[in-house]
Amino acid sequence: MLTIILTILASGFTGVSANDDQPSVLERISWTERSDGEGYVVRLHMNETPSDFKIFQTSQDLTQLALFHEGINIDEIEIAELDSPFADIELNPLPEGVGIDIILEPEVFVLADAYLDANGKDVLINLEKSYEFDVEVLTEGLTPVDWVEVADTSSEHVAEGETDGQQRGQEVEDDVLQEFEAFSEGQQLSTVVIDAGHGGRDPGAIGRAGTFEKDVALAVALRLGNYIEEHLPEVDVVYTRDDDSFVGLEERGSIANEAGGDLFISLHANSASNQQAQGTEVYILGQAKTEEALEVMKRENRVIRFEDEDERSEELSPQQLLVYEVANSGYLAVSEVFSGKLDSQFSERAQRKTRGVKQAPFIVLYHASMPAILVEMGFISNPQEEQFLNSEYGQSILASAIFRAVRDYRDRVNGNQSSSSSE
Question: Could you give the count of Cα atoms lying within 13 Å of 88 in the half-sphere of its Cβ?
């Protein structure tokens, strides 16, 4: 799952991970060298399937994992004897969970991933040997997760009654579809915020024929808005910009929040050094999992260089993302489900090549306090796609695909509202 969904946010944070006299659900942490010699595997020995977990690789020598489940007692967790390349494994208490720091020796270069073992309980952390350059690219500019800040923020949200689970009065499940249904019950889609990327002094990516990304984004944004206004008159449309003007990343989120938006859609065109690259991509907020996603994020976040010094947005840290996911699991679940609907519309109805739903730390999505997605509508660096993106036909195809996803989402959440009202 792409979102961190905490059952403890529904039931309330007790302030401890488990009773001191009870064995921990996470019993032991061990490690072994991979059988192919290409890395190492850290095993978290669980006696129950965890509620959720999230991995962050923030530097060459530090991999961090947030593990959530009721009954984790860090005082009862045994750590196997460490040897090269492991320098230390540290445990940090979280509300109904634990933050784990895996510290490697210098000059050890691995790429980290985490997944459930075949037994459905143990969590495996795969540390695959890699090259120094690849590790540097994926960790550049990242800072370690501050577990104290994550724990304090989680506790504050629960204490103030700000969690989605408490507002719904029901238990948050660890399945995105169930989280989506729970969050959308009683909700309505009444305002859609359409964000045309770049603009003004920021042209965005530029195609070989001279097409500006900012112009494509605005054209599709206005066409999409017209479709919604014509066919979904009960839904208000708000634009972050409706002309060739520059709007900062944080300001775009502020516009959406002040409008009381229920869905935020940021429109962009992709670019790559490979002129044959093609296809649409849909992103939700999260940690970039691939070098490709990281490069897209860096390019789109580069807008900050056009911002005035006193209004410049800050790059997102892993701990900011983790805190956001803890506090906004409902938003992320809706974003993920809507992204899937949109990806299907691009593929099945618009007959476009799609590259799937991904996640990356986009500043513009972080500042929109609502379900939010970023759409890369095609590669402006590909001459054929540039022509499509710059044509009225192509723009209408893209806008109609996005509109159909909005309409389907409207029908689903407003249907939930009707069912809730009739009970």
Answer: 4
- pLDDT at position 298 is 63
Residue span of the structural domain in which 97 resides: 8-158
DSSP secondary structure string for all residues of 332-380:
HHHHHHHHHHHHHIIIIIS---EEEEEEE--HHHHT--S-EEEEEEEET
pLDDT at 150 over 80: no
From residue 364, give the alpha-carbon distance in Å to each of 95, 96, 296, 369, 375: 28, 30, 13, 10, 12
Matching residue, tokens 């634990």: 98
Token pair 């750590």 is found at 79
Residue 340 sits in a domain of what CATH number?
A: 3.40.630.40
pLDDT tens sequence across 291-343: 566 566 666 666 555 555 555 455 666 666 676 666 667 788 888 889 998 99
- Map residue 20 onto helix, strand or coil: coil
The model's pTM = 0.61
Tell me the sheet residues that pair with 343. Answer: none
Q: Are residues 322 and 216 in the same domain?
A: yes
Total domain count, the chain: 2
Given a contact cutoff of 8 angstroms between Cβ atoms, the answer to whether 354 and 385 are in contact is no
Contacts of 118 (CB under 8 A, 6+ apart): none
**CA pair distance 227, 231, nearest whole angstrom:** 6
Burial group, residue 21, by CB count within 10 angstroms (0-12, 13-18, 19+): exposed
Domain termination residue (choose one: 129, 158, 187): 158
Instruction: Examine the domain organization and report whether 146 and 238 are in the same domain.
Output: no
Considering the domain architecture, whether residues 147 and 182 belong to the same structural domain is answered as no
Q: Which amino acid is at 296?
A: V
